[in-house]
Design a protein that fits this description.
Its cofactor is pyridoxal 5'-phosphate. It is an enzyme of class 2 (transferase). Its EC number is 2.6.1.42. The protein has 287 residues and is α+β, with helices and mostly antiparallel strands. The protein contains nine helices and 15 strands. The radius of gyration is 19 Å and the shape is globular. The structure holds pyridoxal-5'-phosphate. The site of pyridoxal-5'-phosphate has 14 residues, from helix 7 and strand 13.
Length: 287
């Protein structure tokens, strides 16, 4: 496996970063997770635009143009001879001194890792996920916008820990007002009648690329899709609940905090949207 590291391809065991990198010391950097389906990179432009926006927000200069980054990703996939892959693109602040000030870090580190997929096991797509809500809150939009996909993932990690303490593999975070924000690394949707709701960005959700694709797909299919805040109660009484993300795609949730959702099986609309999503992935590749 070859890793892109600052202009070179190095073998996985040689792909190393200094302990003085502020990405390591402080979580100072940004990243993207991107999918490759049958040789086609899904929504690459959207991912790169989000990366540049995240970087701009934290005043990190990405030392490549969008075209250059595209080329780097394409090369990484090629060198690793992958058809279906998960790409991790990381831009860290780079090496500096022990102080917080990024001014001591003149050169960001740019890393691209391309791997075979590791998804949730197949039976979870067939049977649906059981999840819980956890005490960890989403960081407040006025502190560091949840729209910034930064290397600071501590609250998301706490969500994962709290989920596994509860004996489940995923969980939902609320914001400080008690509205449902998102999962540890996925967005959440609820279906009620013909209405589909997902929390708006200001509630404290990353504006997921998969989420946005699902909003478009659902609108095209004639659903009434809205970005609207909702509470745990709304989740408990929803007809269907599902999560979306680059790694997870679309996955049904069948139990939340012990409450069975719908009839306890992946919902009809969720399956329809998953099917439409898979179709879009193929169609985008043919363009
Ligand atoms: N929310 C968080 C916190 C994430 O890290 C991710 C993963 O990227 C998502 C949501 C889902 O976003 P996307 O569909 O762009 O992968």
């Amino acid at each position: 496996q070859w890793i892109y590291l600052n202009g070179e391809f190095v073998e996985k065991h040689n792909a190393k970063i200094s302990v003085y990198d502020h990405g390591f010391l402080y979580g100072d950097g940004v990243f993207e997770g991107i999918r490759v389906y049958d040789g086609n990179i899904f929504q690459l432009k959207e991912h790169l635009e989000r990366l540049y926006n995240s970087a701009k927000s934290i005043m990190l200069n990405i030392p490549h143009s969008l075209e250059e980054l595209t080329q780097i990703i394409v090369e990484t996939i090629k060198v690793n001879e992958l058809q279906d892959a998960y790409i991790r693109l990381v831009v860290s602040r780079g090496v500096g001194n022990l102080g917080l000030d990024p001014a001591s870090c003149p050169t960001p580190n740019v890393i691209v890792i391309a791997e075979q997929l590791t998804l949730f096991p197949k039976e979870l797509y067939e049977n649906g996920l059981e999840i819980v809500t956890v005490p960890t809150r989403r960081n407040r939009p006025d502190v560091l916008s949840p729209k910034v996909k930064s290397l600071n993932y501590l609250n998301n990690i706490l969500v994962k820990i709290e989920a596994s303490l509860a004996g489940v593999s995923e969980a939902l975070m609320l914001n400080n007002e008690g509205y449902v924000a998102e999962g540890s690394a996925d967005n959440v949707f609820i279906v009620k009648g013909n209405k589909i709701l997902t929390p708006p960005g200001y509630v404290g959700a990353l504006e997921g690329i998969t989420r946005n694709a699902i909003i478009d797909i659902a609108s095209d299919l004639g659903y009434d899709v809205k970005e609207e805040p909702f509470t745990r109660h709304d989740v408990y009484v929803a007809d269907e609940v599902f999560l979306t993300g680059t790694a997870a795609e679309v996955i049904a949730v069948v139990k939340v905090d012990g409450r069975v959702i719908g009839d306890g099986k992946p919902g009809k609309e969720t399956n329809k949207l998953l099917k439409a999503f898979r179709k879009k992935v193929v169609e985008d590749g043919e363009k």
